[in-house]
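=== Structure Prediction Worksheet ===
Name of assembly: unnamed complex
Input type: mixed (protein and possibly other molecules)
Chain count: two
Listed entries:
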Amino acid sequence: MTTIYSIINGDFIVKNEASILISDLSIQRGYGIFDYFRTINNQPVFLEDHLDRFFYSASELNLNVGLDRDQLKRLIQQLIEKNNIPDSGIRITLTGGYSEDDYSLAKPNLLITQTAFSFNTENFNNGIKLVTFEHQRQLPWIKTIDYLMAIRLQRFIKENKADDVLYYSQDTITECPRSNFFIVTQNDEVLTPGKNILRGITRKKILDFYELNVKETNISLKDIENAKEAFIASTTKNVLPVFEIDGKAIGDGKPGKLTSDIYKKIGGLKEQ
Amino acid sequence: MTTIYSIINGDFIVKNEASILISDLSIQRGYGIFDYFRTINNQPVFLEDHLDRFFYSASELNLNVGLDRDQLKRLIQQLIEKNNIPDSGIRITLTGGYSEDDYSLAKPNLLITQTAFSFNTENFNNGIKLVTFEHQRQLPWIKTIDYLMAIRLQRFIKENKADDVLYYSQDTITECPRSNFFIVTQNDEVLTPGKNILRGITRKKILDFYELNVKETNISLKDIENAKEAFIASTTKNVLPVFEIDGKAIGDGKPGKLTSDIYKKIGGLKEQ
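=== Predicted Assembly ===
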């Protein structure tokens, strides 16, 4: 079995031994940011977009990456070559560092990990079920490590026989914890929330492709009930049709026409 | 120099080598809870209250402590004896554990650390300055490790020449990130917010002592302007008078009569 490596502050460490001191502000105070992108055949997918967002998130939390963009890219390239996991997910995490008083910001720790990953294309036809929950994520425009509510809700999701939770706040839909949300109206308009969300990279690609047709707008709980199709989009989930929300069917249990169309255009980019 | 130990899942580890794997859900997803209590002359202060809250927080986040209360107390006692830091702060942290997929809950990791700590009694006379900020903490009744907003605001606090931030939401004051907030009205009523806050142990002691006089009620930004005295209370800060909020003076730059009275009764308990 091949040894898989992670990178901690530039050092290659055997993955299942990679550790940091417990004085790190991620452990003490939940303070950190990250980004996550896929590789297909050892080629990073949409790397520039993910690095843009990674450096932006770091800056928004007053964290210094400690490497410039080219240095970080070289490090990622070295990891890809060393591990040789052609189809994978690579996660870059930047934490608040080893704080002397468990509160003040310190020199950030940069962690890079790689895990085998590829889509199960059957997921698309199976669709998913969502359950709504009223919650507004803090600092939603920054890709922080804060998934406290989402992980606490794992039990709630299970109890509601759903696959994931869909957040809303004051009757306005925002997003799922790890993906963006879209609906197709009865008039074949494709709509997605534009406020108080994380701007996903797959979402961005959909907006770019469909710039004439996809609108960023407020979506209410009522709008969902009237939707013809619904889907979510993310790096790990690609485009996935939503067949049910809060126990009510959307569409006829098969991927809708526009969802399929977008999946072919966007998903095709990443399935090869 | 004496070696200081931490405890990770029951094992005593040299403090500055204590580490956990980066697959832990605290690092990946900011998922964990903690509690913090002081020792004076090697005696834990208000230990039962802190353990009550620790087990409650763990349960609220679906985390299994893995030890019963007596086992945890024995472990704490062993740490106190081994380290012999008579006046200290002891922090017990419980994280989401080493997740296989970086998202699903795993077997929690239990971390116990001890650090020398004693109050600087001069702090009381110096008082502190607060700056307000609109923010409602998520899951405020649980002592989670989430201090994302508070640490991001360190720069904002400094820019506003303040010592700490005071959160409010929809014109109603809640708390500081690590302490509870109180005002004394012109009629000598002592008021403290009762909703959407963490129920601090020092706050509890104040309510218990002053049960006839201290009221839990909504406090607006306007109420602050009219206050005669204001103070904060926490395990690490004890009772500290607030001399200024958003640049406006409260009182005359000296600890007020009721604040001093409460400090003597409550602070005295912990200063010895």
